Amino acid sequence: MAAAGIFGGRRYRIVWMAVVGFLLLAGCGAAVLLISPTTCLMTFVMGAGTVGSVYLSAGMADGRPARHVASQVVKWSLRSGILTLAVCGYAVTAGWTTIALVLAVVATAPYVVAHLWTPASTVEQYSDEELCLAWCLSTAALESAATAEQRLAITATRLSYLDELERRQPETFAAWLETSPQATADPSDFFIRTDHHTASD
Fold it and tell me: How far is CA 103 from the centre of its chain?
């Protein structure tokens, strides 16, 4: 994350999400204005139903709790329906340029930027604040993981964050564990009261 600089930080993610939100809103608006209501509805349902069925199948196959599966299906179905409708709106107004727009959005996504366009970094290079932020972000990634392999990989990464926190501040780490923190707990209140880490010791 330190190596990723501004393109891997929270501000970049916020700006990217704001731009994508505006693009989705504009695309959906164009679709509603230029395409018949029936076609808009069918487009939304097709996009939502396709992705929703994938998440439903994956969740049932992995034996996840029904409530968790249902929430993921609803969340990703809505997102996919909106995305499909917006793409149709741009296809009507911008034609083939829509492909370039979609590729640009994907290429500038925070995950892609952090893993492809910036040098790789290790947990030893993270500041304490970045390490705590990475832990919090990994919680959301774990909740949205679609397969057992993805969850295992994310869990291994989360363990590396904990190991690094313990290596840097063993007493603080022990005190944090004594509070019996939830898996979603933000450890920053404990570990970044003072930033003890400037570079790999």
Answer: 18
Q: How far apart are CA 114 and CA 4, in angstroms?
A: 6
What tens digit of pLDDT does each residue of 3-56 get? 344 455 667 788 889 999 999 999 999 999 999 999 999 999 999 999 989 888
Element (H, E) at 111: helix 110-112
Q: Report the C-alpha gap between 149 and 50 in whole angstroms.
A: 22
Give the 3-state secondary structure percentages of the chain, helix then strand then coil, rounded to 5.
Answer: 80, 0, 20
Overall pTM > 0.85: no
Buried b (16+ CB within 10 A) or exposed e, 10-19: eebbeebeee
What does the H/E/C string look like for 135-197?
Answer: HHHHHHHHHHCCCHHHHHHHHHHHHHHHHHHHHHCHHHHHHHHHCCCCCCCCCHHHHCCCCCC
